[in-house]
Amino acid sequence: MNGMNILIVGVGGQGVVLASNILAEAALSAGFEVKKTDTLGMAQRGGSVVSHLRYAEQVASPLIPAGEVDLLLAFEKLEAVRWAHFLKPEGIAIINNLMLPPLSVTLGTAAYPGDAAVQAAFQRITPSVHLVPGTATAEALGNAKMVNTILLGYAVRFLGIEPAKLQSIIEAALPARFRQTNVAAFEAGRKLEAID
Amino acid sequence: MERQLLSGNEAIALGAAHAGVRVAAAYPGTPSTEILEAAARFPEIYTEWSSNEAVAVEVALGASYTGVRAMASMKHVGLNVAADAFMAAATTGVRGGLVIISADDPGIHSSQNEQDSRNYARLGRVPCLEPADSQEAYTFTRLAFELSEEFDTPVLLRPTTRVCHSKSVVQPVEPAAITLTPQFVHEPAKLVMLPGAARGRWPKLTERLEKLAAWGETAECNHIINGSAELGIITSGISFHYAREVFPEASFLKLGLSYPLPERKIKEFTAGVSRIMVIEENDGFLELQLKAMGLSVIGKAAFPRTGEYSPDIIRAAAAGAGLTRPGNPAAAGDTELAKRPPLLCPGCPHAGIYFTLSSLGHRSVLPGRQARPPRLTICGDIGCYTLGAYAPLSAMDTCGCMGAGISQAAGMARAGLPEKPLAVIGDSTFMHSGINSLLNAVYNQANICVLILDNATTAMTGHQGHPGSGVSPAGERRNNVVIENLVRGAGVADVTVVDAFDLKAVRNAVKQGLAAGQLAVVIVRGDCPTLTRKRGKPRLVNEKCDDCGACLLVGCSAIQRDEDGHIFIDRSVCVGEYCTICQQVCPRGAIVEAETAS
């Protein structure tokens, strides 16, 4: 089984760090050397969040060099574009179909990239772009906060980690009252199909 | 023992617990905060949030004097606050092992400056250990307690943000079996630093340093990795892993003890390689010492003098200096993209006061309106509420270091600023060092208005307790200081307490505080929403809304515009009746409770 470089990006409060912790624990129990690091500015109140996760037989730096990411898991479209250049050619991008405009966009001093710009940013790098309705699926299941579990469910098909192993780590990481709903979210993510 | 995936901070706490530490004190500060939080999970360790870093070091030093192992943790700027206590500990030395942890923040992820704590090691003639990952954070912490007792010295442990907040695998070993009864041994010549005794101690620090340097010659924490004879790299901390990523073939001397340096080992290493590079974040601390040994090394001439390193930065710098070939030219990121700075949370009690200051101070204007020259001089401070400096609030004019706002305002008033200056400070910062500044303002009759934003916690770093909140690191109740009583007791006559979510009351209190002919203190009180997690009925925007954008000036991330320019409120994050700031701001009464909307 091969190791991977995974970059998880999103907005403060979306559960990026929890998702990356869960994946890291899964990789550890799969026998890998694991390093991960989260980059958060000013304790992160609604700002950009990026988490680097690497697992392999041996890992030196916890930070992934640009152009060496195998899998980019983006919880939001603007953040996906911000980190697109970290993907290696033929790397995989999974992008949650969600737009969270920063205040500068709401106030009209900056622009949010349109869908064409998002596509163009990735076209230069890789054909493997999966736009997935993570937030819509989470809302349909009753809680938008479960988007991280749904995205993990979708991503597991690319990870080389047994889905059952990942699921047991999700269960262990969550308080009892959230367990069942998150297992359902993980299942929903596994069945999810990308938007064409 | 089972291997674990731990952050550097968790690994430091585990290492301390396994070293038998009994007392741990800290003031929260990113990236160091989680060290004490993790230590608080061990019931055998007494943990406290001290009111500031100097106090934390003094508490730990006192414990050490009774013969038990103790530690104090803080961020780099906290070591400035603790500098006096640090030097005192360096001079007297210790009884039980004393470890002082100062977490540096290269790249300024969450700080007001970048500074290299290793310089304090040199100042105090104290050994400095630099862990590169969680395993070393664990091992070096245990080692630090042993060194401390063996060499009669506090030990400075210097992790950096990327070590503190990265997770990697730790293989713990059996805890040390330490059973000690605290006991104070009277020895004034060691512990009472009157000049006569201090003169006796000071040369001992130099002897200590020489012994430590000799220890470092054979210590495992300074190790050589043999590789190419062409290129030798001397490095410490996380830079070691970055350099290994970029130069896998090179020979390495990895220094775990970065002060004092093992000269013989260094010369042995450098004799075997034809070119030597020094790769270290922050200052050229190792480089300077290596050059003083007469060695010819490439350091800051090629590698950045500021900012956080990464494999990409090291590769680019080395390529730029002709030391290696450039890597794969990765497509550069899009720098034109809208930035996403952090914001006050929806339901934040600071939003109302900053909206008030912003409008009274002419800081924000409605779209399409002409900006006016700003009014009010607002001296800020360190905490969540520093985010009030960002647009659209833009209501902060200075921010330097913990507790400085009140004194800066007093200085401005005494300098003769025609307008009465305002100081804005959070409750935790007030307890940390704001109280000193307030005492000074009372005594020196500074005509200023002080706003204490009391959300009953240290919110910025993740809700740690402080003397005003009365919660211990393990979540138990402790005594708490009542801010208004403290302020009155300090001699302030004009004290008002207002509800942070009552905009009219907030506005009146600020106006009165500014109009008063003396020092006025306004305590603006409201719970931190991310601590209480109270969720009310969300607000919504009804048909009366003309999309004027006044509500956007509150800077609440729950209020947005859709693609057609219409205002809407994100129901999933709005805290409803626990806030209602936008409702009070809306000139058309178009923001209402969701259920009552037609």
UniProtKB/TrEMBL annotation, chain A:
Residues 12-190 form the Pyruvate/ketoisovalerate oxidoreductase catalytic domain. SUPFAM superfamilies: Pyruvate-ferredoxin oxidoreductase, PFOR, domain III. Keywords: Oxidoreductase. InterPro entries: IorB_Oxidoreductase, Pyrv/ketoisovalerate_OxRed_cat, Pyrv_flavodox_OxRed_cen. The keyword Oxidoreductase applies. PANTHER family: INDOLEPYRUVATE OXIDOREDUCTASE SUBUNIT IORB. This is Indolepyruvate oxidoreductase subunit beta. The lineage of its organism: Bacteria, Bacillati, Chloroflexota, Dehalococcoidia, Dehalococcoidales.
UniProtKB/TrEMBL annotation, chain B:
InterPro entries: 4Fe4S_Fe-S-bd (IPR017896), HACL1-like (IPR045025), IorA (IPR017721), Pyrv_Fd/Flavodoxin_OxRdtase_N (IPR002880), THDP-binding (IPR029061), TPP_enzyme_TPP-bd (IPR011766), Transketo_C/PFOR_II (IPR009014). Residues 536-564, 565-596 form the 4Fe-4S ferredoxin-type domain. Its EC number is 1.2.7.8. Gene3D superfamilies: 3.40.50.970. Binds 2 [4Fe-4S] clusters. In this family the first cluster has a non-standard and varying [4Fe-4S] binding motif CX(2)CX(2)CX(4-5)CP. It holds the Pfam family TPP_enzyme_C. Its cofactor is [4Fe-4S] cluster. The keyword Disulfide bond does not apply. Keywords: 4Fe-4S, Electron transport, Iron, Iron-sulfur, Metal-binding, Oxidoreductase, Transport. It catalyses: indole-3-pyruvate + 2 oxidized [2Fe-2S]-[ferredoxin] + CoA = (indol-3-yl)acetyl-CoA + 2 reduced [2Fe-2S]-[ferredoxin] + CO2 + H(+). Heterodimer of the IorA and IorB subunits. Catalyzes the ferredoxin-dependent oxidative decarboxylation of arylpyruvates. This is Indolepyruvate oxidoreductase subunit IorA. It comes from Candidatus Dehalogenimonas loeffleri.
